[in-house]
């Protein structure tokens, strides 16, 4: 049995910062109305009162629930209608995990309106994108990316079917696929390959999902037709097909290749995925945050110094690369992929969501004196707005994996997971904070009553099953751990590579683990005297309005930073300040920065100690 992520109903966050951010995300999802979410689909179908020039706008409209959606969702935008699919995917996952009745009612309204749109359009077309956009695409005219926008509606329908078992959505998607297949069949292979060079989003992934759901050979035909030769063949030939190419055009295509392999078993798809990771990560490296893009394109391999700017680390790329790392971990079990996910969860998803408003930062600037630019609830609707609402509904599924009678705790977040081992139910509770003395923004003092902030992440894992029902529970040893973990448990355990393996005999087993860490510097590969400061998985940001040079030893963080403001009531805080400067700079976790100006990378002038 391969390693699998648990279904949405089997893993749920139980507290901490990720759950707070999920709740903020849920509040945003329910703040939007069905008709406004559907506005462009309804306009395309000619349904309802869509007299825009007569509708009020501004604060009075908002007060009466009539506030329209603008930005990329403005009628007339070439990508209009893309956000609805993201909303549906997020709502379906939230409903599956929590049973949210408000979102369920809203989703019912959306499905009803989509059904009405499809009927009004003649039984197939269900998109906000006009069919004429596909004609213009085929003619080589500027029309941005119609298949990208079309895919989002497909994605929403498929995710509602997969997470909630809603056959209505499967049938809507199946009927709509007929229209796309008829269009695609109108081109020879050479011409269609040229069409595929214009961003297609995750169309390939949808065809694989629909093949699995229906068994219809139509989707096997579409999988073959959507083989993007200029990308996939180059990867299979061992070429770098990524440097200076638009990143999030290709990541969804490779996620589609991953699904194609999982559904068809054809090895060519798997080889594409593995080669993509090789060139995207292994042979390219990352910023200290885990991200790798600048201006939405892939940076050159291990050449990041010249790519720090206002538009580094696009949120969509972060989210989709997390998904790709999840796929590869499930296939091969390499903890390197879990390390990658961890870095991007803390320094991507959290760092690019405003902790109070819940809004997204399209990019995460890494220039000196940067400032995050936050989106708005109804005025922007960037692509990253869509990946934001999905991302925060899917964190729990990345925390625990299952494999036969083995459970793997992959991410250290407060989460409860329920699954089966040896044919019987097993529950795993991962606890941090008060219960486990976790060191972080949510934590109280450890049980030892330390004088200063403990330099360790403390985790408690409780495993429960029927008496006599055994299970093996593995705990990932993070790559940032500075020394051997400290383990306290009465159950047998051993270190096995990058995992701690605990033998749960049945009944109730508890294990307490401390993962020690040190403040460390992480240099830019091509500019080793320029460093970022990282503690555990957290990248730190200096609150400063420009690039500043520090003096000290870049290999010895204590010559550069000292602990600062570490205690607040019952909490330990992650806070530092510079040492040896006339004007000090304070450091906080990058994912806590909201509107302050900040720098992540600092050039260091080496001082020689006599």
From TrEMBL:
One Pfam family in the UniProt entry: Beta-AFase-like_GH127_cat
Domain Non-reducing end beta-L-arabinofuranosidase-like GH127 catalytic intervals: 12-396
Gene Ontology MF annotations: hydrolase activity
Domain of life: Bacteria
Matching InterPro entries: 6-hairpin_glycosidase_sf, Beta-AFase-like_GH127_cat
UniProt KW keywords: Hydrolase
Protein name as annotated: Glycoside hydrolase family 127 protein
Protein species of origin: Microbacterium croceum
């Amino acid at each position: 049995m391969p390693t699998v992520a648990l279904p949405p109903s089997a893993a749920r966050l139980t507290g901490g910062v990720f759950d707070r951010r999920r709740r903020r995300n849920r509040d945003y999802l329910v703040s939007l109305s069905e008709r406004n979410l559907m506005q462009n689909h309804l306009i395309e179908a000619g349904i309802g009162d869509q007299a825009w020039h007569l509708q009020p706008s501004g604060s009075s409209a908002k007060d009466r629930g009539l506030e329209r959606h603008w930005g990329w969702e403005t009628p007339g935008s070439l990508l209009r209608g893309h956000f609805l699919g993201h909303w549906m995917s997020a709502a379906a996952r939230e409903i599956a995990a929590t049973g949210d009745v408000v979102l369920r009612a809203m989703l019912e309204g959306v499905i009803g309106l989509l059904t009405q749109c499809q009927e009004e359009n003649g039984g197939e077309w269900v998109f906000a994108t006009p069919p004429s956009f596909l004609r213009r695409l085929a003619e080589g005219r500027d029309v941005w990316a119609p298949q990208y926008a079309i895919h989002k509606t497909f994605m929403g329908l498929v995710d509602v079917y997969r997470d909630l078992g809603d056959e209505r959505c499967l049938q809507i998607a199946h009927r709509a696929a007929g229209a796309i297949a008829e269009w695609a069949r109108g081109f020879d292979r050479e011409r269609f390959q040229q069409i595929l060079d214009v961003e297609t989003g995750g169309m390939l992934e949808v065809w694989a999902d629909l093949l699995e759901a229906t068994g219809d050979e139509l989707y096997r035909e579409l999988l073959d037709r959507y083989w993007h030769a200029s990308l996939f063949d180059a990867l299979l030939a061992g070429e770098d097909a990524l440097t200076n190419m638009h990143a999030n055009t290709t990541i969804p295509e490779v996620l589609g290749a991953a699904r194609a392999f999982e559904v068809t078993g054809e090895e060519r798809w798997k080889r594409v995925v593995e080669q993509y990771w090789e060139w995207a990560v292994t042979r390219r490296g990352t910023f200290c945050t885990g991200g790798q893009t600048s201006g939405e394109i892939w940076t050159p391999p291990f050449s990041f110094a010249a790519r720090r700017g206002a538009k580094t680390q696009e949120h969509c790329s972060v989210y989709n690369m997390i998904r790709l790392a999840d796929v590869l971990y499930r296939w091969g079990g390499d903890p390197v992929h879990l390390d990658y996910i961890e870095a991007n969860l803390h320094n991507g998803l959290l760092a690019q969501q405003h902790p109070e408003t819940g809004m997204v930062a399209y990019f995460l600037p890494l220039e000196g004196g940067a400032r995050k630019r936050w989106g708005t609830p109804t005025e922007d609707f960037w692509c990253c707005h869509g990946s934001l609402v999905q991302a925060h509904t899917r964190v729990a599924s990345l925390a625990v994996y299952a494999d036969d009678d083995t459970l793997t705790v992959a991410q250290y977040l407060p989460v409860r997971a329920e699954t089966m081992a040896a044919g019987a139910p097993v529950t795993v509770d991962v606890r941090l904070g008060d219960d486990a003395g976790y060191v972080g923004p949510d934590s109280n003092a450890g049980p030892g009553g330390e004088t200063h902030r403990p330099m360790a992440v403390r985790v408690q894992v409780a495993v429960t099953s029927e008496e006599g029902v055994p299970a093996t529970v593995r705990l990932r040893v993070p790559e940032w751990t500075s020394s051997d973990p400290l383990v306290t448990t009465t159950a047998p355990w051993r270190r096995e590579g990058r995992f701690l393996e605990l033998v749960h005999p049945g009944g109730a087993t508890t294990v307490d683990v401390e993962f020690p860490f040190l403040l460390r510097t992480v240099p830019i590969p091509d500019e080793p005297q320029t460093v970022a400061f990282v503690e555990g998985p957290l990248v730190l940001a200096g609150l400063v309005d420009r690039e500043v040079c520090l003096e000290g030893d870049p290999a010895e963080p204590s010559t550069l930073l000292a602990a600062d403001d570490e205690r607040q009531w019952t909490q330990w805080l992650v806070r530092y300040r510079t040492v040896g400067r006339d004007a000090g700079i304070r450091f906080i976790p990058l994912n806590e920065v909201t509107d302050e100006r900040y720098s992540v990378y600092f050039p260091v002038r080496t001082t020689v100690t006599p």
